[in-house]
Every structure is written in C-alpha cells, then in structure tokens.
C-alpha cells in the first residue's frame, strides 16, 4: 500500500477468550457505538472454527463499513475475505503475509522493542504495533513492558500509523496518544467492561482531542 493508511484511533481486539456467546451481536453493538476497526484473535480454536467465526464477523463488520482483520493467520484472513491480517514476531513475516492477502489488504505487525520496530518500519506493513505498553493479563507470556518511551522513540522513526497495545485503559489513553501513538488497541478494558458499547463511546469521545496538552 503506497499511501499512508488512515487508521481509526480505536482498534478493538475481539479476543475469543473474552467474547460473549454471540460475537456477531456483540460486534453490532460496538459498531453502533462507533467502533470502526476490529481484529479477531483466537489462540486456541482449530483453524476451521477460526475461519468460520472470522467469516461471520467479517461480513457483519464490513456491512457497516468497519475494517476487520484476522490475527496471526494471513491464509485465514484471505479465505474470510477480511480487510487484512495482523502478524506478530512468531508469525510469517510481513512480506509473506502481503503475498497471501494481496496489495490492497491491510498488513499490521507487532513489535516489542526498538530493534523489532526498526526492522518492521522498513517493511511494507501498513501499521506498526508496539507493546505491551503497560502490564497486561490478557496475553499469555507477554513480552516485557515497554512503556510510553518506546512509543516516543518509535514515533521518530516513521510516519506509518503506530498502534499501542497492552494494558491500555480509558484513563491511560491520552498519555499513549500524546506519546505519539495514532491508535489504541484494546482488549480487556472494552471486552470485560460492564457495558462494552458505553466504553467504546467513552474512548471515541476522548480520542479526537487526546493529543492536545493535558488541562490542569
Ligand atoms: N499484544 C501485546 S499485549 C496484548 C497483545 C495481544 C494483549 C492486550 O490486551 P489488554 O487486555 O488490552 O491488555
Ligand atoms: Mg501472532
């Protein structure tokens, strides 16, 4: 993708471990609240089940003009007709993911330190994720916490969208955006919220002006 991707500022990760029994209804509610970027993350189900779920969620998301990415698996992303794929350091490389999903799809990549970020910035990934920014209990065996500092350093290296992930909450969002992130990727603070749709609205209320200096 030659042009810089315009990434929505809120990236909701639909982690199968935290999804309710009807994920399609759930996504509809979050879209009703304004969410426009989703990723399906399922670390445990067999591939055929991941594909089925991804297909259903993709149809739902795209009907409303939202983008829908699949975590880890470019093959399943392509089969599901998804908007793109998100690969990590243990998945196939960005170039391989691109070869599978095609030039017009979105390819995002996770990085967990400055060297990984530097390397990822040289690929044709459409966005670069950094994290975990804060401690997280959602990811099993998470990499060491990188803090806001890695976002600041990463920001100097690229004009590609930077996505911050790991332990992001509504309260921490302004600091993350001020450090230079374009988008926050959130799992538990939305999926485990008492009212996930309300939480989405709260994020979308603060995100447009989050980069402005803090008011005291
Ligand atoms: N990659 C780095 S941290 C993380 C992933 C997938 C989990 C983020 O989940 P949460 O609940 O928003 O901390
Ligand atoms: Mg992965």
Question: Care to describe what's here?
Answer:
With 216 residues, the chain is an alpha/beta fold. 39% of the residues lie in helices and 18% in strands. It is built from 9 helices and 8 strands. The protein has an 8-stranded parallel barrel with strand order 1-2-3-4-5-6-7-8, surrounded by 7 helices. Helix 1 (23-32) runs parallel beside helix 2 (47-63), helix 3 packs parallel to helix 4 (94-101) and helix 5 packs parallel to helix 6. The radius of gyration is 16 Å and the shape is globular. The mean pLDDT is 96. Magnesium ion binds next to loops.
> From the helix content, strand content and strand pairing, which structural class follows?
alpha/beta
Shape: globular
Helix content: 25-40%
Task: Please tell me the overall pLDDT.
Answer: 96
Order of helices and strands: EHEHEHEHEHEHEHEHH
Low-pLDDT windows of residues: none
What's the story with the biggest beta sheet? 8 strands, parallel, barrel
Count of individual helical segments: 9
The value of Rg in angstroms is: 16 Å
- Tell me which ligands are bound: 4-methyl-5-hydroxyethylthiazole phosphate, magnesium ion
In total, the number of strands is: 8
Alpha-carbon distance between the termini? 41 Å
**Strands in their spatial order, largest beta sheet:** 1-2-3-4-5-6-7-8
**Beta-sheet strand percentage?**
15-25%
Short description:
Helix content is 39%, strand content 18%. It has helices at residues 23-32, 47-63, 74-80, 94-101, 114-121, 147-157, 170-178, 188-191, 196-206, and strands at 10-15, 37-41, 67-71, 84-87, 106-111, 127-130, 162-165, 183-186. Residues 110, 131-132, 136, 138-139, 142, 165-168, 186-189 line the site of 4-methyl-5-hydroxyethylthiazole phosphate.
């Amino acid at each position: 993708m030659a042009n810089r991707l315009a990434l929505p500022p809120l990236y909701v990760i639909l982690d199968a471990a935290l999804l309710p029994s009807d994920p399609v209804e759930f996504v509809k509610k979050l879209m009703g609240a304004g969410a426009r970027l989703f990723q399906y993350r399922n670390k445990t189900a067999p591939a055929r089940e991941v594909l089925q779920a991804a297909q259903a969620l993709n149809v739902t998301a795209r009907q409303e003009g939202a983008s829908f990415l699949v975590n880890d698996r470019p093959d399943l992303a392509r089969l599901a007709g998804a908007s793109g794929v998100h690969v990590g350091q243990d998945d196939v490389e960005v170039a391989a993911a691109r070869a599978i999903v095609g030039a017009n799809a979105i390819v995002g990549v996770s990085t967990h330190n400055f060297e990984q970020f530097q390397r990822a910035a040289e690929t044709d990934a459409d966005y670069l994720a950094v994290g975990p920014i804060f401690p997280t209990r959602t990811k099993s065996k998470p990499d060491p916490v990188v803090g806001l500092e890695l976002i600041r350093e990463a920001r100097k290296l690229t004009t590609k969208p930077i996505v911050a992930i790991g332990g992001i909450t509504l309260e921490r969002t302004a600091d993350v955006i001020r450090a230079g992130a374009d988008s926050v990727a959130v799992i538990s603070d939305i999926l485990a919220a008492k009212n996930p749709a309300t939480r989405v609205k709260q994020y979308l209320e603060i995100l447009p002006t989050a980069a402005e200096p803090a008011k005291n």
